[in-house]
């Protein structure tokens, strides 16, 4: 009886050992198949996108717009470098605009001004700034919202020209505040 139970234990150990070997072999086969599938699927994909390849072009373009001289900055963004720096300061500290992970605040503002100054489409700006269309749109709207938060600081309410005005340029516009905002034009037909 002891010999039968010992024999059964040996058979059980052999079966268990074979099962473990089968399990390990099965896992190796699965790993080899997964790697082969992955290799085949990677053949059809084009070159992988790498952010590190685009960064030098983006920095160079931003430097071309802003950092070279006032004439180029004025031509591209319709403001001097000093005015651009002041606008960036206002948008950061009062408007609440911040750098994002891959786009600096100055690049966001330059992108915004470039669109407004030249009436460029999203596709053109996307190509010029080496960004995706979604990135251009998102950061344009971020800057627009920050500029709208500055409306109390940037927009000035017009003051009417007083009756006793002696300035030769403005004395002809006495009582014509309505003409300035488009709601009232005082006309005398002769």
TrEMBL record:
Cross-referenced InterPro entries: DUF8040, HARBI1-like
Domain DUF8040 intervals: 61-148
A matching Pfam family: DUF8040
Coiled coil: none
Superkingdom to which the source organism belongs: Eukaryota
Protein's UniProt name: DUF8040 domain-containing protein
Species whose genome carries this gene: Rehmannia glutinosa
